[in-house]
Amino acid sequence: MTVAGWTLDPFWLPLLAAAALLYARAWRAAAGRHPAWRLACFAAGLVIVAAATVTPLESLGNRVLWVNFTGFLALTMAAPPLLLLGAPLTLAFRAAGPAGRRRLRRAVRSRLVKALTFPVFTWLLFAVVTYLWQFTRLTDLAATNWLLRDLQLATLLVTGLLFWLPALAIDPVGWRLPYPLRVLYVFVEMTHKALFGGMFLSMNTAMHAGFAERAPAWAPEPIADQRIAIMILWLAGNLLFVAALASIIVGWIRYEARNQRRIDRRLALQREAERRRRAALEQVFHRPL
After folding, report:
1. Nearest 5°: phi and psi at 183?
2. Tally of CB atoms within 10 A around 222
3. Handedness of CA 146, 148, 150, 156 (dihedral sign)
4. Which of 4, 37, 68, 97 has its CA 20 to 30 A from that of 106?
5. For 44-53, what is each residue's pLDDT tens digit?
């Protein structure tokens, strides 16, 4: 049901409320062991999900293609990284008791979770699902069927979460890519999306003609609407990819710096131990070595 452009969705409203409540309760239970900035990231991610699913952005996205693709971008590229930066699984481990942690550990180590979070699978899933909901007739069908529309939004969000999980590697999951592979993982998808965006931007025919029949008077012509939509995905998507790559590279540099400091400390301890050994031997034999 839609009221003044807002979608009173029986799926998304309870889901968003439950996610916010559970995270807030776990954060309080963690008693200061989970940083406040992670709470802010998770809250920002939920706000973006809400904007794409229950605000006028969602209802208008069924009539104007560039608005539809803006919501698409929010659910696959903006909200998932923020939700994952909130480290909800890490928070669950911190807030749970011993029995709860054992159950979580079994779930994370299960074959199903390992299969769903395998980086090759998550990359291919992201590529296929985003293509299907962008450039096939499913886009038009979802715009006129609320059940299919909810399925579209849900699969985009879940696919986005699965894609960004190995790239950001914040929560403890079975697969943890080294930094060079994380950079490659994101860069290849960025290149893939850029090539597809350039190809579809050059088209002279509208892919989703059904939107023109429902478009408001102020909406651009179908081909202009399509080009604006693809430009939003292309430019904003690439900016988000570049930001993610920059974040991963900064994390890589910091990791290498920490690792070098550990090596330096280990070598310093070894040198100190050798110095003491030599000093002890000199005292025993009364001569320098």
Report:
1. -60, -45
2. 19
3. negative
4. 37
5. 999 999 999 9
